[in-house]
Amino acid sequence: xxxxxxxCQLGGTFKTxxxxxxxxxxxxxxxxxxxxxxxxxxxxxEVSEMFNCIYSNVSIKYFLPGNRKTLITISNDKDLxxxxxxxxxxxxxxxxxxxxxxxxxxxSNMPVSRSSRTTLSEVGxxxxxxxxxxxxxxxxxxxxxxxxxxxDVSNDITIVDEHIVNVDEHIVNVDEHIDLTPLPLHNFSxxxxxxxxxxxxxxxxxxxxxxxxxxDFRDALRKYAIAxxxxxxxxxNDSHRVTVKCKTEGCPWRIHASRLSTxxxxxxxxxxxxxxCEGSVxxxxxxATRSWVAGVIKEKLKVSPNYKPKDIVIDIKEQYGVELNYFxxxxxxxxxxxxxxxxxxxxxxxxxxxxxxxxETNPGSLATFTTKDDSSFHRLFVSFNAxxxxxxxxxxxxxxxxxxxxxxxxxxxxxxxxxxDGDDDVFPVAFAVxxxxxxxxxxxxxxxxxxxxxxxHGLTFVADRENxxxxxxxxxxxxxxxxxxxxxxxxxxxLIRDLKGQFSHEVKRLIVxxxxxxxxxxxxxxxxxxxxSIKSISxxxxxxxxxxxxxxxxxxxxxxARYNHITSNFGEMFYSWVSEAxxxxxxxxxxxxxxxxxxxxxxxxxxxxxxxxxLTPFREExxxxxxxxxxxxxxFNSDPIGNKYEVHGDSIEVVDITNYDCxxxxxxxxxxxxxxxxxxxxxxxxxxxxxxxRYFTSESYRxxxxxxxxxxxxxxxxVAVRKEDCQAIVTVTPPPTRRPPGRPPSKKVGMVDGNRxxxxxxxxxxxxxxxxxxxxxx
Length: 778
Hints:
Layout: E1 3-10, E2 13-16, E3 22-25, E4 28-35, H1 40-51, E5 58-64, E6 67-74, H2 77-86, E7 92-99, H3 112-115, E8 117-119, H4 120-126, H5 140-148, E9 150-152, H6 167-170, H7 174-177, H8 188-197, E10 210-211, H9 214-227, E11 232-237, E12 241-246, E13 254-259, E14 266-272, H10 290-303, H11 309-320, H12 326-341, H13 344-349, H14 351-361, E15 366-371, E16 377-383, H15 385-394, E17 398-405, E18 413-420, E19 426-434, H16 439-452, E20 460-463, H17 467-476, E21 483-486, H18 488-498, H19 505-520, H20 524-537, H21 539-546, H22 572-580, H23 586-608, H24 617-628, E22 634-639, E23 644-648, E24 652-656, E25 661-662, H25 666-670, H26 675-683, H27 698-704, E26 721-722, E27 729-730
Parallel strand pairs: 1-7, 17-20, 20-21
Antiparallel strand pairs: 1-4, 2-3, 5-6, 5-7, 8-9, 10-14, 11-12, 12-13, 13-14, 15-16, 16-19, 17-18, 18-19, 22-23, 23-24, 24-25, 26-27
């Protein structure tokens, strides 16, 4: 009998990726064995008990293999059996548990005239289904009123409309079956408070009660005060004695506890349990310390990682009657996160063991770190063997360098190198966590990248043109014939910042458009035409473009192969992974990224095994589009010996089949034959697929994702790890940088986008202000 493991996940969130598929983040997971004889009710009951959920509120869903866009619901035994059957030989199935809570309508705020009315059908139900008998002599209007209208069932009003009909005359014994006594009003909020805090009301019993430590006594006292609705303050509070009195002046409540000699036990020595005050904890959160808040919300935070401080404030008020401010809730959440995820400080101490585990579980990987003189964290570099082999075997020799700021407790920045695979999707190659962006850190990152990518020649880097990065690339890869292509997005940002004239938003957009057109122009005449257009707008902008080294960014002059990629923000998907895990301790953040890479490689490898085309789907589509243009072209053999052909269409181009060259330059820029080349190849009776770069074939794509990323052991080790080659102890402490106060920015600061409208004054025609704030003298 086939048995599988159902990995049940609860508490996470679904996010839609760029391709429309759903990805699941966060939450808790448990495993359950199921087989073909398992019943839906038993499975659902076990899930409910495992996650401590109400059986009727549980909904179970899963994805079909190869389709992560639609969730399939399990609602009976056949659905459960189909799920097992659909997953074939899989040993495990991801199952997602959704809690669907039914909320009863709240009628407490409805008007009296609405809440005291009900329809005749509802009266029939309330009257134990006793039918309402209508008088045969009743006129038609009166009958329609009874059947279609509503009537009042309050204590004294029993008439639907005193001018039409009297209900008592035509309904038999309705009052006998309906209890019209108004319900007493309860303070539901107080009931919730009492249920939540009832277990704490007897935490303090009186003189002679003992506690294991001072901490335990303080915790019990705090819960006791919240349950009994009063606030207290410390008169004495140290490691061996605690004296506390009620915070209200004149109230005699008081307690004193101290340590029993020769033990760590704390014993209550004196206590006056009487209160003359009404309590002051109902409207303030003085007794709700950060650790108490953390203990209260920890279980819910485990299920819902996106539990917001404002929601914590509401829940604590509803359940315990204690009002917190935002920062109390935020600090309590931070402590609870650290209790669940582990200490940020300890994570840095585990880096030596963590790096060793990466290289041990993934042989061929490179994981290394450095510290400063005071042993504080400086830099961490990670490149998995699957990424190194995949880049060497199947990716184009093209790397995009970028960075993203981290918003964790100790901040920092992530540096990354990504590459395009054969289908033009992001392939992560290496990444590093550094304390800040500096020229020295970029240099170190490139040195480690070179050590990982041994014997890689002819690389092209697409990155910013900042001096530190430009010099580092040329120095580190001096002996490997590499090229540095400037990122056009950063280049256009710098151009707009450096323009000193008063240019309108529309003029700036035209300059940026011409700059992009100049970069994409395949031939020098096209480049010259575009920068002449910039010159007609601004001589200053024209001079800036000429002095910006077009050999590093213009297709017409660039000596390397960047396959028509002109910006370095290619790895946005990889950066989004980091942004989702930035608030985790450093080792967990890296392991989360590792898990994402592992899932990415597995998913794409499985998908590519189903391809039947010679090229990847995206490249097949591009080749088909170029092939459509062939019918409008004419071919003439201009050099039979050199295999050169003239192709006449909108323009006359020369195709050199031997050297894979066309005068339109598209073949050289993209690695795919252009329509002119396809026309000649077809005329010669050959297959255009044979003239595409090898990186675009399905075979190369499968080689890119042929290796797997292995899981890292979760075994805990001490902060200090002793190296084998010496007796010195390697310790790593957190960096001195700390997260600044306030909420971190949610958006990255980017360039002035061409579609973003700037203020322009209608009086002086200058930008940056409007007419009401204009100071220009007219």
